[in-house]
Each structure stands twice: as structure tokens, then as C-alpha cells.
Amino acid sequence: MSETPVAIIMGSQSDWATMKHAALTLDALGIGHADRIVSAHRTPDRLVDFAKSARDAGFKVIIAGAGGAAHLPGMTASMTPLPVFGVPVESKALSGKDSLLSIVQMPGGIPVGTLAIGKPGAINAALLAAAVLALGDAELAARLDAYRARQTDAVALEPVDEEP
Ligand code: RP5
């Protein structure tokens, strides 16, 4: 497997607070990733260069996070055959509903796998990327199984009172 099979791209520096949770999840699974700011509307040439060269660069999966009028995942998917997972970043004006609808409503023909708004979506995008990569990597599959087992083991049977 390539040393950096996952590319995490985001439309703005302001998206990193969300998208770093994808990075941290990949780190926990020992999956290499490249993290880049690529804006569909502020750096369109960077987007074209990235998307058209992503497969030859060795990436296997792309995680794309953006907020508001979130063109980035769909535009990326239009220029690469790699699987693209879109993370709707929570926007100030519309709490990420705009991001979600922008990303999820792709016309038939160019798919973007759309995750939940915000941090949960970023984490799950990384876990989906891991699941895709694990199809061809038995060691990663074992690490992913162990990650899920740890998560299961961390759930107590009975609730306790928490500090208010
Ligand atoms: C989008 O606009 C970005 O993905 C970001 O979520 C949103 C706001 O960007 P900034 O104004 O914070 O740079 O392109």
C-alpha cells in the first residue's frame, strides 16, 4: 500500500478544526494521509491539478470536507475515479444543512459518499476509508477490527451519574 493512501482535502483553513478528526482517526489506525487546503472556488486550478493527478500520486481514497456552498467533494469526484467521501462542515449561517445538501445531492453518474455534518462525519469518513483500504490489506483489517473492539469494550453496561 502507498505510504499515504488517503488524501484529506478541505476548502479552507477554517475546516481543519473539523477535518483534523479524520486525520486523528487515520493516525489511530496507522494509515498515512496527506492534508491539503484545496478550495473549489478560491483555488480552482489547485483543485484541478490535485484531482486529475490524485490517482497517479498514489492516493486510493479522498476525503473532502467543505462548508456552505460545498462544491469541493463533487468537483473532485468529477475529475478522479477514486472514491470520494464528503464531509459537510458545520456552517455558521445554516448549521451545516447547506453543506450537507450541497454535498449529498449529486446527480446520478458521479458519486460522493456523504457523511454526517461535522466531527462525526469526519471520523466516519476516515473509518470508511479504512474499510475500503482494509479490503486489500489484512493487517489493516485486523487493526480496524481491534479499533472497533476497543470501542465496544469502552461502553459500560450501566449508566452512572455524571457531574453537571
Ligand atoms: C468553504 O467556505 C470552506 O469549505 C469553508 O467551510 C467555508 C468558509 O470558508 P472561510 O471563509 O472560513 O475561509 O469554501
UniProtKB/TrEMBL annotation:
Alphabetical list of Pfam families matching this protein: AIRC (PF00731)
Main enzyme class: isomerase
Keyword list, A-Z: Isomerase, Purine biosynthesis
Database matches in SMART domains: AIRC
Residues holding substrate: 12, 15, 42
GO terms for biological process, alphabetical: 'de novo' IMP biosynthetic process
Keyword Isomerase belongs to the record: yes
Swiss-Prot/TrEMBL catalytic activity: 5-carboxyamino-1-(5-phospho-D-ribosyl)imidazole + H(+) = 5-amino-1-(5-phospho-D-ribosyl)imidazole-4-carboxylate
InterPro entries, A to Z: PurE_ClassI, PurE_dom, PurE_prokaryotes
Residues covered by the PurE domain: 4-155
Enzyme Commission numbers on file: 5.4.99.18
Pathway assigned to this chain's UniProt record: Purine metabolism; IMP biosynthesis via de novo pathway; 5-amino-1-(5-phospho-D-ribosyl)imidazole-4-carboxylate from 5-amino-1-(5-phospho-D-ribosyl)imidazole (N5-CAIR route): step 2/2
Gene Ontology MF term list: 5-(carboxyamino)imidazole ribonucleotide mutase activity
Functional description taken from the UniProt entry: Catalyzes the conversion of N5-carboxyaminoimidazole ribonucleotide (N5-CAIR) to 4-carboxy-5-aminoimidazole ribonucleotide (CAIR).
HAMAP family reported in the protein's UniProt record: PurE_classI (MF_01929)
Family to which this protein belongs: Belongs to the AIR carboxylase family. Class I subfamily.
Classification via NCBIfam families: purE
Protein name per UniProt: N5-carboxyaminoimidazole ribonucleotide mutase
Organism listed in the record: Hartmannibacter diazotrophicus
